[in-house]
Design brief:
about 200 residues; mainly alpha; Tetracycline Repressor, domain 2; 11 helices; about 70% helix
Length: about 200
């Protein structure tokens, strides 16, 4: 009879999510493998078996956060309106952050004493590529100004990141509903990068 596999992916994800919540709320210094194991009702042996040590756990946590973020962005299919795709990617950015605030914080907020490896940083950096690709397609279609696509993409990304960070931290100015203004703000940023001409004017939201 085959032995049951107790150190499986389900347990791994449960440990990652609990560790992410701890790091998000109190920083990496508060992360104890023994306490983590107790919280998830498993053994420290299981934690060490799955991750090796605390550094391995943090690395896996970061990797999982990036993987899920990429998967969410990949649900945004390219359309024949690249400027609208830029906004849709921004909406996907916020949806991921609100659904996974602890994992989002691992990638985009203060991680304490955890320093991602160059490989992990490269993986995280690649998440802007769908936005860059949409801008490049928009430039080819005459929707966006000529210039460096990465700069345009970064400004759109920065607007999304700033609003989401304010929303998650609870630091939005009183009386302002970020959720209600979010999409309108993204369209305003996109509009600022539009090529000026009869064709682009007709496409302005």
């Amino acid at each position: 009879m085959a032995r049951l596999k107790t150190h499986d992916d389900a347990l791994r994800l449960k440990l990652i999510n609990r560790a992410a919540a701890t790091v998000f709320d109190r920083g990496t210094g508060a992360l104890s493998l023994r306490k983590l194991a107790a919280d998830v009702k498993t053994s420290t042996t299981a934690v060490y078996s799955l991750f090796g040590n605390k550094a391995g756990l943090l690395d896996s946590l970061y990797e999982e956060a990036v993987r899920l973020f990429i998967a969410r962005l990949d649900t945004v299919d390219s359309s024949d309106d690249p400027s609208a795709d830029v906004v849709r990617l921004g909406i996907a950015y916020r949806e991921y952050a609100l659904a996974n605030p602890h994992l989002y914080g691992i990638v985009f907020a203060d991680r304490g004493d955890y320093e991602p490896t160059p490989e992990r940083r490269s993986e995280a950096g690649s998440t802007i590529q769908p936005l860059v690709d949409a801008v490049v397609r928009g430039q080819a279609a005459g929707q966006f100004k000529e210039g460096t696509a990465e700069v345009i993409a970064l400004s759109c990304w920065g607007a999304a990141h700033g609003l989401v960070s304010l929303e998650l931290s609870g630091n939005a100015p009183p009386g302002l509903d970020i959720g209600a203004a979010y999409e309108e703000t993204l369209y305003a940023v996109v509009s600022g990068w539009r090529a000026r001409g009869p064709e682009s004017a007709a496409q302005t939201p």
